[in-house]
């Protein structure tokens, strides 16, 4: 059976690849959307946090024997703590200034992190073994489904939907939104607003680290893996609507699938299709598909 002139296995294989890429786009853009939507910070260090998360997993396994499952918890925790320190010592001074200042600061931090890891590990990349429990695959008849790839999609969707539910449907999420919009009133109720803000930035960074650990067995762990991805993720956030949690999730998944299908129909356009969509969306709806007009 052929679809668009290629075998069904090749077609569904590209569709799966697009869904996997979309899962990474969704998790990373979710972290960006949380940080921008609640704190109004354009976090250009997100790609570096994703990269360092992958390196924590690789270094932990290589030198300390820390397995993949422990790294899924350890890397987000470490990056979250580092992000909390960055927010308390640097970013908190920029909240009343233009967005450009936070973008330049986080961009500088990303360059520093990338430079340090290039100095120690080069740019060739390190391989990370798929955990034994998730090795192998299943023959579905129309395609071969690697178990780890399926796990990436399920884990990404679970994290994304959980984060959306917490922010949009729980008292904690309501308090977070209130703390960023009217911190004076929330502070008057006895709630520690600075701690909430720090925790929000740390959570967004932790999502990037979680995505990095998920990506480690699929891509080569290298210092430029974040910078190669962050521009696409920013495009996803812009298309979905800056600060829109649900928009980032749905747009990330959708654009990943579109990118995968483009590789089937017209491979030459696959590298630019997301940016073409971004241009069209901005022309029609500048606030993004799920964003609100200012």
Can you describe this structure?
- The protein is built from eleven helices and four strands, in the order ββααααββααααααα.
- The longest helix has 32 residues, at 8-39.
- Strand 1 and strand 2 (6-7) form a beta hairpin.
- Helices cover 70% and strands 3% of the residues.
- It starts with a strand and ends in a 10-residue tail after the last helix.
- Helix 3 packs antiparallel against helix 8.
- The strands form two sheets. The chain has a two-stranded antiparallel sheet with strand order 1-2.
- With 294 residues, the protein is mostly helical.
- The protein has a single domain, classed as Orthogonal Bundle (ABC transporter involved in vitamin B12 uptake, BtuC).
- It is globular.
- The mean pLDDT is 88.
Give the SSE layout.
Blueprint: E1 2-3, E2 6-7, H1 8-39, H2 46-64, H3 68-89, H4 99-121, E3 137-139, E4 144-146, H5 147-169, H6 171-181, H7 183-188, H8 193-215, H9 227-240, H10 245-265, H11 273-284
Antiparallel strand pairs: 1-2, 3-4
Helix pairs in contact: 1-5, 1-8, 1-9, 1-10, 2-3, 2-4, 2-8, 3-8, 5-6, 9-10, 9-11
Helical content (DSSP H or I, runs of 4+):
over 70%
Number of helical segments? Answer: 11
* Structural class label: mainly alpha
**CATH top level label:** Mainly Alpha
Radius of gyration: 19 Å
Strand fraction band?
under 5%
How many discrete domains?
1
Ends apart, CA distance between termini: 49 Å
- Main beta sheet, described? 2 strands, antiparallel
Number of strands: 4
């Amino acid at each position: 059976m052929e679809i668009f002139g290629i075998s069904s296995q090749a077609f569904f294989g590209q569709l799966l690849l697009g869904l996997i890429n979309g899962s990474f786009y969704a998790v990373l853009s979710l972290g960006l959307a949380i940080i921008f939507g609640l704190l109004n910070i354009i976090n250009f260090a997100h790609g570096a946090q994703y990269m360092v998360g992958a390196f924590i997993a690789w270094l932990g396994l290589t030198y300390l024997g820390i397995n993949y499952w422990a790294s899924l918890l350890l890397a987000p925790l470490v990056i979250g703590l580092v992000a909390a320190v960055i927010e308390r010592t640097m970013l908190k001074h920029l909240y009343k200034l233009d967005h450009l200042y936070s973008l330049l600061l986080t961009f500088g931090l990303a360059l520093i992190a990338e430079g340090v890891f290039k100095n120690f590990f080069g740019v060739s990349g390190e391989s990370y073994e798929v955990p034994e429990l998730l090795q192998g695959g299943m023959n579905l008849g129309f395609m071969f489904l690697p178990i780890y790839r399926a796990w990436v999609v399920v884990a990404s969707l679970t994290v994304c939907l959980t984060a959306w539910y917490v922010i949009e449907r729980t008292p904690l999420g309501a308090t977070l939104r209130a703390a960023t919009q009217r911190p004076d009133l929330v502070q008057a109720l006895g709630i520690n607003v600075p701690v909430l803000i720090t925790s929000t930035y740390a959570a967004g960074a932790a999502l990037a680290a979680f995505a990095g650990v998920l990506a480690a067995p699929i891509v080569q762990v290298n210092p430029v893996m974040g910078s190669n991805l962050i521009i696409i993720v920013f495009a996803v956030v812009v298309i979905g609507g800056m600060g829109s949690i649900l928009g980032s999730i749905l747009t990330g998944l959708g654009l990943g699938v579109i990118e995968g299908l483009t590789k089937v129909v017209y491979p030459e356009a696959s590298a630019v299709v997301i940016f073409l969509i971004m241009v069209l969306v901005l022309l029609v709806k500048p606030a993004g598909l799920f964003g609100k007009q200012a």
